[in-house]
UniProtKB/TrEMBL annotation:
Gene3D superfamilies from the UniProt entry: NAD(P)-binding Rossmann-like Domain
PANTHER family from the UniProt entry: 3-OXOACYL-[ACYL-CARRIER-PROTEIN] REDUCTASE, CHLOROPLASTIC (PTHR42760:SF40), SHORT-CHAIN DEHYDROGENASES/REDUCTASES FAMILY MEMBER (PTHR42760)
Keywords: Oxidoreductase
GO biological process: fatty acid elongation
Alphabetical list of PROSITE patterns matching this protein: ADH_SHORT
Gene that this sequence comes from: fabG
Name this protein carries in UniProt: 3-oxoacyl-[acyl-carrier-protein] reductase
NCBIfam families hit by this protein: PRK05653.1-3, PRK07231.1, PRK12826.1-2
UniProt similarity note: Belongs to the short-chain dehydrogenases/reductases (SDR) family.
One function term, GO molecular function aspect: oxidoreductase activity, acting on the CH-OH group of donors, NAD or NADP as acceptor
InterPro entries, per the entry: KR_dom (IPR057326), NAD(P)-bd_dom_sf (IPR036291), Sc_DH/Rdtase_CS (IPR020904), SDR_fam (IPR002347)
Length: 248
């Protein structure tokens, strides 16, 4: 069963990793997908791969901290595919260090991409979805770090916590337009970042997960699919933890 037939979606930061997994799963369920990333070449490759699989996809490079670029991204989806029905604000960066060593520049850079980027994406999608008059779903990717805080990530944890507040406030504002806004908090997920961890460190972290395994990007993608689809038609303003029970 295709849950998103006839719908169009934008996924930011989707040239690789969790973002690409989300875009792929949405496309597999019938959505036309805009692959958006600051890495233009990576976005082109990802979109071409989906098209080769028989999916509808285009690449649109975008810096999510650029107001005009984000507005154009939302408009491009509507102009290319006829609508914008799903917006997944996933783009992010890290600049880890302790507060004593962290520069203000690195604090602002992370907050700007994660939090300001999600705000710009939510605002742009809300504008288009209101005008369409057919509702829609916005999914913001937070992190379990926004719930518990991570050592050396005051910037990242603050931004991810801020996304929760943004999600709930935006959900209240957009509900009358039948636009739903929800957040996902991934836990420990198999990505390039976790692959670079020392094996013993990763093993200790996995040992703290009640379900006994590291998460896969597809675990996040399936949660995003649920929230994007009509299966979640009466769900808005929520935060879904996809962390295997870690930090429950």
């Amino acid at each position: 069963m295709n849950l998103l037939d006839g719908r169009a979606a934008v996924v930011t930061g989707s040239a690789q990793g969790i973002g690409l997994a989300i875009a792929t799963v949405l496309a597999e369920h019938g959505a036309a997908v805009v692959i958006s990333d600051v890495n233009a070449e990576g976005a082109e490759r990802a979109a071409a791969d989906l098209v080769a699989q028989g999916r509808r996809a285009v690449a649109v490079p975008c810096d999510v901290t650029d107001e005009a670029a984000v507005d154009s991204l939302a408009d491009t989806c509507r102009e290319t595919f006829g609508s914008l029905d799903v917006m997944v604000n996933n783009a992010g960066v890290t600049r880890d260090s302790t507060m004593a060593k962290m520069t203000l520049e690195n604090f602002k850079a992370v907050v700007d991409v994660h939090l300001t980027g999600a705000w710009l994406g939510t605002r742009a999608a809300g504008r288009v979805m209101r005008a369409q008059g057919r509702g829609g779903s916005i999914v913001n990717i937070s992190s379990i770090s926004g719930k518990v805080g991570n050592f050396g990530q005051t910037n990242y944890s603050a931004a991810k916590a801020g996304i929760v507040g943004l999600t709930k406030a935006a959900a209240r504002e957009l509900a009358k337009h039948e636009v739903r806004v929800n957040a996902i908090q991934p836990g420990l997920i198999r990505t390039a970042m976790t692959a670079a961890m020392p094996p013993e460190v990763l093993a200790r972290m996995v040992a703290d997960i009640p379900l006994g395994r590291i998460g896969e990007p597809e675990d996040i993608a399936k949660a995003a699919l649920f929230l994007a689809s009509d299966l979640a038609a009466f769900i808005t303003g929520t935060v879904t933890e996809v962390a295997g029970g870690r930090h429950m």
